[in-house]
Write a structure and sequence with these properties.
With 529 residues, this protein is of the alpha+beta class. The chain is built from 16 helices and 18 strands. Helices cover 35% and strands 22% of the residues. Strands 3, 4, 5, 6, 11, 12, 13, 14, 15 and 16 form a 10-stranded mixed β-sheet that branches.
Length: 529
């Protein structure tokens, strides 16, 4: 298996900015967007030896890529819809990701509870097909469970009318942590990832795109950057970049909002997830154990506007609470919700119809007459294949030497075969010993940021030094997952995080105060009551 060279461990924004300034001539690739698709494209291009720059307007995975259901899956619902090709592709990519990032991606059993006589045989047959499609990359066989076996695995499942269940296997991951590790992998391969660098214009000569104008959000400095090909990988924001290229470009994204609520693990203390295959709006519903909490979601609501901070609708929250109460013995109330978060799916428009639940989750690759390459759609599970397809096409547009993809066997930064041996630093994988050194070097390093959160002070220091964290939000929302695990506790932890970051970044008391204030305002949106 090919290594990424992850022993370097550091992605520090100041160093990346310096690398950008020192680079002369044309970059082979300029990738706009630091979510799953953009980071995957950067890794794909850099791993082939292309000189690659990635620019993100905010923080890595600030948007959709940190707000998923935390699943790496083939998509049982797509099988039901007849999209077998998407399922096969996703199952293959799921298997590769389990192999390439074992410190972040793990096998998880899912149980489909059966309350009608026909559900056991019906879902049992369908999930056997799911097993077959996964082939050698399967994670375990599905099978029918008795009522007693089902309740043993999920003791808080509603017992009234329960006939049994079907168990199958998919994978679970930490989305924002994977994004951070992809940024590190990209840098390890010689790429240059820079967050808080917004592309404000495309540079053209005789109608052909040959670079970007970018503004540093921290300094306000603007600079022209030249590239042989520019890739627009900005997810739900891709139409904005396309209009920089052509103001008359038709909009291709139909954004769909997905909302999740986070509950205490006592609502579902078992180690298996619940999958409800058909809810009132036609979606599947998941209740997934994650970081000692339970994530319940999701919704599928068409929205007219895109935002970095989409707001959950009252009816979406009510939908999730109602369905959770339908399948759990303990009915959650708004006061039980530790955090609520929303993300926007970049679904590709189809002529006619407004039901985003029925829109394709396949990715779409477009090349404009100016040579701008746009990749959108898809999902986290298939990010690598999306990146492979994008780099193949973009290299042709740029006239670059053709080089084969190597990412099928590329270990992602932090790769570690037995990460559980690194507790409590499992998600850091091979970087875990460095975290341990920080606890020894800094007296307060081992101290918890908050009694209700599993994170320690040394993780803040590490996030600044090695993971390009620039704000309190970066640390509490994405380098750690404190905002999602307990929004109120994360608000209490914000002053400590601001103080530690100020020491590392050389900021003053005014910066600390502004950071605390801005984070408190943001976190309030994740609290129901």
């Amino acid at each position: 298996m090919r290594r990424s060279g992850f022993e370097s461990a550091t992605v520090k924004r100041e160093q990346m900015i310096e690398r950008l300034r020192e680079t002369r001539g044309f970059w082979d690739f300029i990738v706009i967007g630091g979510g799953a698709t953009g980071l995957g494209t950067g890794v794909e291009a850099a791993s082939r030896g292309y000189r690659t720059l990635l620019l993100e307007q905010s923080d890595f995975a600030k948007g959709t890529s940190s707000r998923s259901t935390k699943l790496v899956h083939g998509g049982v619902r797509y099988l039901r819809q007849g999209n077998v090709s998407l399922v096969v592709e996703a199952l293959r990519e799921r298997g590769l990701l389990v192999r390439n990032a074992p410190h972040l991606v793990r096998n998880l059993s899912f149980i489909v509870p059966n309350y009608d006589w026909w559900e056991g045989p019906f879902y049992g047959v369908g999930l056997k097909l799911y097993d077959v499609l996964a082939g050698r990359l399967g994670l375990g066989p599905s099978r029918v469970l008795s009522r007693e076996e089902t309740l043993e695995r999920i003791p808080t499942l509603e017992p009234e009318g329960l006939r049994g269940g079907v168990v199958y296997h998919d994978a679970q991951f930490d989305d924002a942590r994977l994004a951070v590790n992809l940024a590190q992998t990209f840098a390890d391969l010689g790429g240059t990832p820079i967050n808080y660098m917004q592309v404000t214009a495309l540079l053209k000569t005789r109608g052909v795109v040959h670079g970007v104008l970018a503004r540093d959000a921290e300094t306000g400095e603007e600079q022209e950057i030249h590239g042989r090909v520019v890739v627009n990988a900005t997810g739900v924001f891709c139409d904005g970049i396309r209009k920089l290229d052509d103001p008359d470009a038709p909009e291709i994204v139909a954004p769909s909002q997905g909302v999740h609520i986070v509950l205490d693990k006592s609502f579902q203390p078992g180690e298996s997830a619940i999958m409800v295959p058909h809810t009132d709006d036609g979606r599947v519903l998941f209740a997934v154990p994650w970081h000692d909490r339970v994530v319940v979601g999701t919704t599928d609501t068409p929205v007219a506007e895109v935002s970095l901070e989409p707001a959950p609708l009252t009816e979406e929250i009510e939908f999730l609470l109602t369905h959770a109460a339908r399948y759990l013995t303990r009915d959650p109330t708004p006061s039980d919700v530790l955090s609520v978060f929303a993300g926007l799916r970049p679904l590709v428009r189809q002529d006619g119809g407004t039901d985003t639940a029925s829109l394709s989750r396949d990715h779409t690759l477009l090349i404009s007459s100016s040579g701008l390459v746009t990749i959108t759609g898809g999902k986290w599970t298939t990010y690598r294949k999306m990146a492979e397809d994008t780099v193949d096409e973009a290299a042709l547009v740029a006239g670059l030497e053709e080089r084969e993809s190597v990412t099928r066997d590329l270990r992602i930064h932090g790769w570690l075969k037995n990460p559980e041996a690194m507790a409590p630093w499992e998600v850091y994988g091979s970087d875990a010993p460095e975290l341990q050194k920080l606890t020894e070097a800094r007296p307060e390093g081992a101290g918890l940021l908050h009694p209700r959160l599993p994170y320690r002070a040394c993780e803040v220091i590490w996030a600044v030094r090695s993971e390009s964290a620039r704000t309190v939000e970066d640390v509490l929302a994405r380098r750690t997952r404190a905002l999602l695990l307990d929004a109120r506790a994360s608000m209490d932890a914000a002053p400590t995080v601001a103080r530690l970051m100020a020491q590392e970044l050389g900021r003053d008391a005014a910066w600390e105060g502004l950071q605390i204030s801005e984070y408190q305002e943001l976190a309030k949106r994740y609290v129901l009551c």
